[in-house]
Each structure stands twice: as C-alpha cells, then as structure tokens.
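Side project, low priority. Logging it here so it doesn't get lost.
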Amino acid sequence: MDTTMVNGMRLLLSSATLLTLFVDPESAGKLTRITWLIFSAYTMHSLLLYVLAVAGISLPQDILLYWLDVAWYALIVFSTSSHNNLFFLFFFFAILISSFQRGFEEGARVTLASAGLFAATALFGETDAELSRLLLRTTFLLALGYMIAYWGGSAITQRGHLALLRDVSQLSNPRFGVDQTITSVLEKTRSYFKARSCLLIMQDKGTRVWSLRSVIHTEAGVIHTSSLLSDDAASPLLAFPPDKIVLYNQPPGPWLPWLGGARMLNMDNGRWLRHDDAAGASLAELLEAHAFISAPLPLRNGKGRLYIVSATSLSKTDALFLSHIGAQAFPVIENIELLDRLASQAASREREKMARDLHDTAIQPYIGLRHGLAALRNEATPGNPLLPELDKLIIMSGQVITDLRSYARTFKNGQVQSEPELLVALRRQATQIREFYGIDIAVQIEGDLHINDRLAAEVFQIVNEGMSNIRKHTSARHGAVKLTCVQGALHISIDNECAAAHVPDFLPDSLAERAAALGGAARVTHSTLGNTSVQIEIPI
C-alpha cells in the first residue's frame, strides 16, 4: 500500500475527529481536558507521520503503526462518555491497513483486539439499556472486520500467485537448457510454499523409465538431485489417479482422523473427496512429511506429477495453485525443448553444408597447392638451395590439410564442447596470445562448471574477447582468467596488471551486452595492488 496515501487518510480521520469536537461537542458527551488532549495528540501524531512520509523519511514498521492506531481509537472511545457517537468506526481503518499489508491472520488479530478494546472501554459507565447497542456494535465490528481481513488476505495471496506464475513463465532461457529451467521452476515453487522439498516425476512417451528431479532445502543449503527410476521404484509416487489433485495433512491425533488424511479434488463438481488414507500416510512416511500436495502435469509427450513436501500443514488453495503452476510452466518448458530440438536439427544440417563448403573452398585449394609444390620439388635439381624450404612448405601444407579435414569431420558430426574442451580451447587461445604478442595469461577453472554446450560457447566468446581487450587496450604483460560456479551463478574474472596510477572508470560495452543477453551483469574493479579486473556474473 502507498505509505503517503495511508498517512494522508490517517491525518484526514484525526482532523475530522478534532473538528467534530468543535462543531458538535455534544456528540462526544461531556468534554474534559483529557478528551481534548487525546484528540489533539492523535492529530499531531497523524500530522507527523504524514510529513515524514512526504519528506521521504523512513518510518517505523507498519505493524507498529496500525497497532498504535488501535490504541489511539481505544483511548478515543474511552474518553467520550456518550456512546451514541460513531468513533468506534475508526477501528476499521486499522483493520484495513493490517489486512491489506500483512494478510488475513494479522487482520484477524487486529479485528479481535479492536472488538475487545471497544467492548472493554465502552462498558465503563454503560447502563443496562445501552448494553444491547454495545453488543450490536461489537458484533458488527467483528463481522465486518473478519470480512475485510479475509479480502485483504485474499488480495495478498493473489498478488503472490500472479508474481510466481509470471516468474515461472519467464524463467526460461534456451541457452541454459531445459534441465536448468526445470530446476529453477522447482526451486521457486519450493521457496514460495516455504516447503522442505519439491519433487518432479516424469515419463516420456515410448519409454519405461521415470525421471525424478528434486530440490531439497537443508541446513547446508539447497540440494538439486536427478535420478532415473523403474516402474516399481516410482510406484509410491504414482499411487494416486493420474488426473487428480491430491492434498494430504497428517491428522493431529488418532482421535481426530477427519481433520487430516488424503483428499482428492473431483473436477466435475469441485468437491474434495476422501481417498485411501493408508496410501497417503505411507507416502508421507516415505517422504518424511507432515503434509504434501500433488498435481498432475499437462504434458503433450508424456505424463508426470509435481509434489510439494512440507513440515507444516497445507491447504486446498495451495493444492489448486500447484496445479496452476504446472499448467503455466511445463507447456512453456515443452516448447523450449521442441525449439531446442528443432535448432539442433537445423544446426546439424547447417554443419553438413558448411563442412562441404569448407572442403570445396579451403581443403581443395590446399591440396592443389601441395601438388604444385611437389611438382616444383621434382623439377628442381639436386643441388638447388631452395629444396629445404620446399620440403618444409610441403610438410606444412600436409599438416594444414590434415587439420582442416579433422576440423571438418568434427564440425559435421556436431561434437560439442564439454567442460574440459572449454578449458582446452581457452588455454589454446592464451597460448597463441603469448606466442604472438608476449602476453602471459593464465587460465583457471575452479570446481565443476555445470553448463551445457551452448552456454560454454557463449563463455568462450566472452573470455576470448576479454583476452583480446587486454592485448588491444592495455600495456599489461600478464593477466589471468578464472571461471567458477558459486550459488547458482557462473563467475568469470578477467584480470590484468595496470601500471597507471589512476585508471578512469569504464565498462567494456561488448562484454556488458553479452552478459546482459545471458541474464547477467558485468562490472570493473580496481585493486590496491594495481590490477584491473572485469567481473562477469551469469545466472545458471
């Protein structure tokens, strides 16, 4: 909620109460100095909060402000001897703020506190004839306050639902691959429900193997796992009908079984029906869960279920929303997988064409050159001083032909860079820079880089451009490149020595654009040892 608007409305209400004392003092009963002091103090309190909000000065926690409002309204009701006034309606202001800022539970607490304080303060000096009116107003405050709290909680919940649905539908970057996209969706879903783990079990058409992916929150951090299961191993997770949404909560005790157990949603009439409690309890024991929810996935080329495993109780609303997440995210993921397959097929055809072009435009001329050199060598007399140079050129041309054929064959077969190949390629590039320009650049990879071939190709281009920038834009003779994966992000550090006493702030535009295209960012830092470092972070 807008802080300035809320404080403006608070000032308007407090000014209205103070104005009421001047215009119609009889509505407040017998006025005393305490009454004037309370009304004036609340107006000054509201004015101060409004001025601070307009000035942009940080205010205390919202939870403190609306509880202060409840206290002020209780004092106002207590200080007015006539309860024919309508000052008790101001309690709804505190209920509205708490409900739409903190949700249903906080709104309900403020409602109960407001009703209790109103009844307690209003009882002083009441006659028997006025108790019925007091009971009616207290009931009205409780009923309408509960409705406001419910609507406010629903609004907050819906905003959270929409934000998560937007996130899971925009998480996908084809460069990162389907696996990492699925892992991101599972982690965001687990985090939203504040659950212990999120499980995904899927089976593609035409296969008899189930894939199980899980994101588990532990004290040491978040763990991602992936494994393949047979039908027997996957059967506990498939104990429910494939098209049903399932909710299970552990009963609070054996004497209250109806407060827990497994329930399934009947899509025809929207009612939740009890299911085999033994199957739900068995799966909950296997998952070590107090509660879990499960929803089927609308897959075109397979089937699967999504699970949320929690140590606290879950609701029917949670189960329905989990089905919405599956319906929103996984069709997008299937489209990414389809596009990735189409792109791979198109790339394969393009590689074959380029390999043929390479053979015709590059390898054949080298073969002709070698034949010409061999013919020239045969015509030379035995004592010709150019014979050693001709022999050297013939050997070099033969090596180039062999390398080009090997490259064309590898290119045609579509062999991609794995993590070791990326390191080899970077070191080869650093070796060429050292041999040609005398700049020694050390390349280091710390730990395992969990990146696919497409991202590896992008990383190679980024690092290659960074090493070229060291050569073209600095006088450094030494540099270093370090790659590491930390907390779900790939960190690239490109360092070089700098002899200048003062280095102006700068940012390589091309590197920043490449990083931004991958959802990352780039920055430049300067150390006290005289080194300049380009730091690039790419989420994976």
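Brief comment: Residues 125-129, 415-419 have pLDDT under 50 and may be disordered.
Revisit when time allows.
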